[in-house]
UniProtKB/TrEMBL annotation:
It comes from the Bacteria. It comes from Kribbella sandramycini. This is MFS family permease. Keywords: Cell membrane, Membrane, Transmembrane, Transmembrane helix. GO terms for cellular component: plasma membrane. It holds the Pfam family MFS_1. The chain crosses the membrane at residues 45-63, 75-98, 104-130, 227-245, 251-273, 280-301, 307-329, 350-371, 377-398. It is found in: Cell membrane.
Length: 404
C-alpha cells in the first residue's frame, strides 16, 4: 500500500507534524524566556540544556524495557497528553509571576522523559503501521520530513510569537499542539498489537537489548560516532542563544530566522536520503554526513550586519542538520530491518543512552567552557569536537558495515 493511502500512518504522520511544530517553538522560547525574563547566565543555561538530555542517561534503559512490554500506540497517546500538561504549566506560572528557573528545570526534565519514551515507542511503532519492509526507508524519510518541515516553520513562528506576544504565549501554543496530536492519533485508529509476553527478568531483558545492539556493527558505528559528536553539540546548544543575544545582539526573530535556514538541512535530508541511498549506497554518503557536523564552526566565526550573521550561521546549521538527519534515517532503516521487533524498544534505549546520555555532561561542559574561556572561544572548541564522529564512520564504511 502506498504511504499516502495508509490511513493510520497518515494520521500518525500529521499528529507528529503538529506536535513537532509546537516543540520547535518551545525549544526556542524556553531558552529565550530563561535569558530575557530570568537573566540566566552560562552556568544556568548549561544546567537547563543538561536536564533536557538527562533522561536518556538515567531512564533510557528502564524505559526501553517497558516500551517492549506495553502497547506502543497507547504509550504514544499518553506521552503526548503528559507533555502538553507539563508545558502548559510554564505560561500559567508566568502569567501569575511565579515562574522560576527551578520550574523550568523540572519541566524540562519531565518533558524530556516523556519525549524519550515517545521516541523509543515511535521507532518501534512505524513497522507496525508500515508492514512492507520495502517502504520502511520511505516511511522513515517521511518521519524525518515531519521533523524537518516543523523545524522550518516552528522556529520562525516561535521567534515571531516571542517578539510579538512574549515567550509564554509561544510556549502555550506548544502545549496545545500536543493535545491536538493526541486527538489525531486516536482518530487514526492505527493497529496497536499487544506485545509478546516476556517472562525474562528486568536484567535479562536489558542484556538482550545490549546483545542485539552489539550484533549490528553499522548501527554501533553510527551511534558511537554520533554520541561523541553530540557531547560537544549539546555544549554548543547550551551557549548558542546566550551568544546570539549577548555577543551578536540578535533579536528573537533573527534567531528564529537562523533556525529556519538551518532546518532546511534536515528537510533536504528527508527528501534526498532514499534516492541518494539507491544511487550511491549508504557508506560513502554516511562519511560525508559525519563531516558536515563541522558546520557548527561557522557560528563563532560569523561577523557583519545582522543579515550576514543570519546567512552565515544559518548555513552552518543547515550543514549540521543535513548530516545529522541523514545518519538518523539510515540508522532507523538498518534498525528496523535487522533487529527483532520485540527488541526494538530496548535497542533504541541503548542508542539513546549512548547518544543523548552524553548531553548532561556536554551541556554542563559547554556552560563551564563559556564561563571560563568566554562564549566565542568555547564555541570554537565545541565546534571542532563535533568532528569526532568522522573516524567512526570512516572505519565502519571501510569494513562494509554501513551497507544497507
Amino acid at each position: 500500500m502506498p504511504l499516502r493511502r495508509n490511513r493510520p500512518f497518515a494520521f500518525f504522520w500529521t499528529a507528529q507534524l503538529l506536535s513537532n511544530a509546537g516543540t520547535q517553538i518551545s525549544e526556542l522560547a524556553i531558552p529565550l524566556i530563561a535569558v530575557l525574563a530570568l537573566s540566566a547566565g552560562p552556568a544556568e543555561m548549561g544546567v537547563l540544556t543538561a536536564l533536557e538530555s538527562l533522561p536518556s542517561l538515567v531512564l533510557a534503559l528502564f524505559l526501553g524495557v517497558y516500551v517492549d512490554r506495553l502497547r506502543r500506540g497507547r504509550l504514544l497517546f499518553w506521552a503526548n497528553i503528559g507533555q502538553g500538561v507539563l508545558i502548559a504549566t510554564v505560561p500559567i506560572a508566568a502569567a501569575f509571576g511565579w515562574l522560576t528557573m527551578g520550574q523550568l528545570y523540572v519541566v524540562t526534565f519531565a518533558v524530556g522523559s516523556l519525549a524519550l519514551a515517545y521516541g523509543l515507542a515511535q521507532t518501534a511503532y512505524v513497522p507496525v503501521l508500515v508492514t512492507d519492509q520495502r517502504r520502511l526507508t520511505a516511511a522513515n524519510s517521511s518521519m524525518a520530513l515531519t521533523d524537518s518541515i516543523t523545524a522550518v516553520a516552528g522556529p520562525g513562528l516561535g521567534g515571531v510569537l516571542v517578539q510579538l506576544l512574549t515567550a509564554p504565549i509561544a510556549i502555550a501554543v506548544d502545549a496545545a499542539s500536543f493535545f491536538v496530536a493526541a486527538l489525531l492519533q486516536a482518530l487514526g485508529r492505527g493497529p496497536d498489537p499487544r506485545p509478546i509476553q516476556q517472562q525474562s527478568r528486568f536484567g535479562t531483558s536489558l542484556r538482550e537489548g545490549f546483545t542485539a545492539f552489539r550484533a549490528q556493527p553499522g548501527i554501533v558505528a553510527i551511534t558511537a560516532g554520533k554520541g561523541c559528536a553530540d557531547f560537544f553539540h549539546w555544549g554548543a546548544l547550551a551557549l548558542f542563544v546566550l551568544y546570539a543575544v549577548r555577543e551578536l545582539g540578535l533579536s528573537p526573530a533573527a534567531i528564529g530566522a537562523i533556525a529556519v535556514l538551518g532546518s532546511l538541512g534536515p528537510l533536504l535530508a528527508g527528501v534526498l536520503t532514499t534516492p541518494v541511498s539507491r544511487r550511491f549506497g549508504t557508506a560513502g554518503p554516511a562519511v560525508v554526513a559525519a563531516a558536515l557536523f563541522g558546520g557548527g564552526l561557522l557560528t563563532p566565526f560569523a561577523a557583519g550586519p545582522d543579515l550576514v550573521l543570519i546567512a552565515i550561521i544559518g548555513l552552518g546549521q543547515f550543514l549540521l542538520g543535513l548530516g545529522i538527519v541523514y545518519l538518523i534515517i539510515i540508522r532507523a532503516t538498518l534498525l528496523q530491518r535487522t533487529v527483532d521487533p520485540a527488541l526494538l524498544g530496548r535497542v533504541g534505549a541503548v542508542i539513546r543512552l549512548v547518544e543523548w546520555g552524553t548531553g548532561p555532561v556536554g551541556g554542563l561542559f559547554g556552560g563551564f567552557l563559556g564561563a571560563t574561556l568566554g562564549l566565542r572561544p568555547a564555541l570554537i572548541v565545541l565546534g571542532i569536537g563535533t568532528l569526532a564522529a568522522v573516524p567512526w564512520l570512516v572505519v565502519a564504511a571501510a569494513r562494509g558495515h554501513l551497507n544497507d
